[in-house]
């Protein structure tokens, strides 16, 4: 059977291996993510979760294996090329321009879609201006979607932590991605901020139709949001399935013994 178009997973990793000077970060991981899926990756500290994200976004090049995004082999592509294909990412630590406003940070996220350089902008002012206006309109749509109206003209560095995380999410959305990678989206958040973020993550999947891969330590959030979960330990996938299947898997329980609670 030939798998094409909408049937094909958005992401396919097959037998990926990655080592750093003898330290095996990823040892033969394979998984796929569907086009309407919210897929979570869990595991103890140092299990290899961020390394998987770094492989998907082209920051690390695996020693072995295949990585396909939207049907395209992306193994040899550089991070900016993978971003241009439609993979957007948020980070464990906020990576925004603290002195710029919410709107300006969102417009920078849109940068991959503005197709003019400085000389072109000077030569074709009208065209550049139209691109700029379109970017601003897209940024305002994201402000509405993520309920950032109250903060839109504030420098991001002055905003509460949970709002900054939301702006970072908005900047990833500004790329109009085909896939969103969320690295610990609620780390360090209080309960209210976590609940807000959970709602936005679900809305992105359901209303914007963007599939999501999320690395997250908060098991409550993973249980509530994820369609499927892959648990990793020492660079290997030890269980993949529904959140309840994975949470009750004996290998997952023993991997977490001595680590944080699974409940
Ligand atoms: N750039 C690197 N150089 C050397 N070793 C690395 C590098 N990146 C990751 N590793 C190692 O690979 C292993 C997996 O690390 P990784 O950061 O992927 O784990 P993680 O599951 O994301 O951990 P955490 O939950 O603490 O963020 C660890 O042993 C780590 O020390």
From TrEMBL:
Q: Which UniProt keywords apply?
A: ATP-binding, Nucleotide-binding, Transport
SMART domains registered for this protein in UniProt: AAA (SM00382)
The reply on keyword Metal-binding is: no
What is an example of a GO molecular function annotated in this UniProt entry? ATP hydrolysis activity
What is the name of this protein? ABC transporter ATP-binding protein
- Whether Nucleotide-binding counts among this entry's keywords is yes
Q: Which Pfam families match?
A: ABC_tran, BCA_ABC_TP_C
What residues does the ABC transporter domain cover? 11-259
Q: Which SUPFAM superfamilies match?
A: P-loop containing nucleoside triphosphate hydrolases
Taxonomic source organism? Haloechinothrix aidingensis
For this record, the Gene Ontology CC terms, alphabetical, are: plasma membrane
Provide the taxonomic classification: Bacteria, Bacillati, Actinomycetota, Actinomycetes, Pseudonocardiales
- Xref: PROSITE patterns: ABC_TRANSPORTER_2
């Amino acid at each position: 059977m030939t798998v094409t178009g909408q049937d094909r997973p958005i992401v396919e990793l097959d037998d990926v291996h990655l080592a750093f000077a003898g330290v095996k970060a990823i040892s033969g991981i394979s998984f796929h993510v569907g086009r309407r899926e919210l897929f979570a990756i869990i595991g103890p500290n140092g299990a290899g979760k961020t390394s998987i994200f770094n492989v998907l976004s082209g920051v690390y090049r695996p020693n072995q294996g295949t990585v396909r995004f939207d049907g395209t082999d992306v193994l040899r592509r550089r991070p900016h090329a993978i971003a241009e294909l439609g993979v957007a990412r948020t980070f464990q630590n906020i990576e925004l321009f603290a002195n710029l406003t919410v709107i300006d940070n969102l417009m920078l996220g849109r940068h991959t879609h503005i197709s003019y350089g400085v000389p072109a902008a000077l030569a074709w002012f009208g065209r550049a201006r139209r691109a700029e206006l379109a970017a601003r309109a897209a940024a305002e749509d994201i402000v509405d979607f993520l309920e950032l109206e109250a903060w839109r003209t504030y420098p991001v560095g002055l905003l509460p932590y949970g709002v900054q995380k939301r702006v970072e999410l908005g900047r990833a959305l500004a790329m109009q991605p085909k896939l969103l990678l969320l690295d610990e989206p609620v780390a360090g958040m209080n309960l209210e901020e976590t609940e807000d973020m959970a709602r936005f993550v679900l809305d992105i999947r359901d209303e914007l139709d963007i599939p999501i891969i999320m690395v997250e330590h908060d098991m409550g959030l993973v249980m509530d949001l994820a369609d499927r979960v892959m648990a990793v330990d020492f660079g290997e996938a030890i269980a993949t399935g529904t959140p309840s299947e994975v949470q009750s898997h004996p290998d997952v329980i023993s991997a977490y013994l001595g680590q944080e609670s699974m409940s």
